[in-house]
Amino acid sequence: MVIDEGLRQVLQRANRVVVLTGAGISAESGVPTFREAQDGLWDQYDPEDVATPEAFQRNPRRVWAWYAHRRQLAQEVEPNAGHWALVEWSRALSWLQVVTQNVDGLHQRAGSEHVIELHGNIHRDRVFDGPLAAEVDDAELPRCPETGAVLRPDVVWFGEQLPEGAMEQAVAAVRSADLMLSVGTSAVVQPAASLPLEALEREIPVVEINAEPTPLTPVASWHFLGSAGELVPTLVRSAASG
Ligand code: BJW
Question: Which residues of the chain, if any, have pLDDT below 70?
Fold first, then answer.
């Protein structure tokens, strides 16, 4: 990773940093990403079958089986050097806000205190507020112990709104930052993908770290192709030196 003089200065002067993260930051912990050609979840599963409210209406058992498996995996893995480097950096800065699309809770387990979860958290349940298809056998589905309502994972599926206030908080954080990082995201899912563009429109520099080029790459202020577990700690060390 070659950090030029311009970036070194931006890093050393930054006091308020927003970091948008995606599945790539958890990849080195052993959590699968979504859109990679091999091993990506969307290579093995059709999002229309597992990650929409309609999929749950049609076949809640299949959706639950998928999330139960991913929930267990997320419990078994550990945060990695990328997550930890952000915690270390947050201690050296006046303010560092993590905005994550990930549902695995690894930023919090690493020790990040300020985390906005745009797509919910796989470890929580909430009530499914739509009807199930008439032919669905709803016996043995997880239910609210108090009301008996059918539960679903507390994540954001395609076509659903983000948690109330999450995007507003994220936009406010971006607007008040003096530096933004985009780490391990394919930068295609909206509205999260609009956040680095919001920063750039306000002339807030954006550094992208990702294993492969994304739609953000050509417009980012600096981009680095490679692993988050290696490059995030290197960037943080460079910010601290000087
Ligand atoms: C590494 C690495 C390493 C690997 N180091 N890097 C057309 C245009 C625009 C928008 C739309 C459209 N059609 C539909 C939409 C809307 C849709 C959308 O954006 N779709 C696009 C795909 C086109 N968005 C929505 O539906 C959102 N809601 C919405 O818009 O609501 C509007 C509304 C208004 C009013 C009423 C109602 C609604 C909701 C989006 C929800 C996304 N949900 C998921 C599942 C969450 C739950 C779960 O986990 O199961 O969120 S989908 C999936 O994608 C997941 C992720 O958070 C999200 C983003 O993926 P991410 O994190 O970027 O992962 P990958 O795999 O894509 O990329 C990983 C990257 O890491 C890769 O590039 C690797 O190279 C890299 N990498 N190893 C560094 N070690």
Answer: 242
